[in-house]
Amino acid sequence: xxxxxxxxxxxxxxxxxxxxxxSTRTAxxxxxxxxxxxxxxxxxxxxxxxxxxxxxxxxxxxxxFLALITTNLGGPxxxxxxxxxxxxxxLCSVCLPKxxxxxxxxxxxxxxxxxxMRSICSLIxxxxxxxxxxxxxxxYAFFNALSALVLVCGFVCLVNLCEPICHxxxxxxxxxxxxxxxxxxxxxxxx
Length: 191
Description:
Number of helices: 7
Mean pLDDT: 76
Low-confidence stretches: 168-191
Helix content: over 70%
Radius of gyration: 20 Å
Number of strands: 0
Shape: flat
Largest sheet: none
Strand content: under 5%
């Protein structure tokens, strides 16, 4: 395992450094999330406590996924330009801003809230759950519902960000070395 990680970073190119770091972070955190879910299945009384750590990992992975998409497309400016060029309507255009710059900023903040607010809500709900009172159980349900609402909002923003981008031919963008894996993938899947 250590040998694979060391080998991965031995021949690291400056143009792909950020992509390698982001993908490695995500790849190393998701098995930890799975392990925590397994612990909560084996010992059901630890489920609420484990959900605090799981929501932190989920929020961080979604935020890193957005950073990975943005970096792969050439940065925030290139992502916004790609959204403007696509001219595709968003899936949920009623509740989201129509200007790509405002929408991209909102998506970044919403995914940050998925990380921060869900973690805080999960911690408060765990404290309420382990209080052992009826009002604690009610507060637990309320904070879990609030956490789920924040997560749904994050997914809606992320899907609406990816929708215009996924149907635009990335091959015709500026030939950045960072976009090369995506361009090759697009060319392979389009034929």
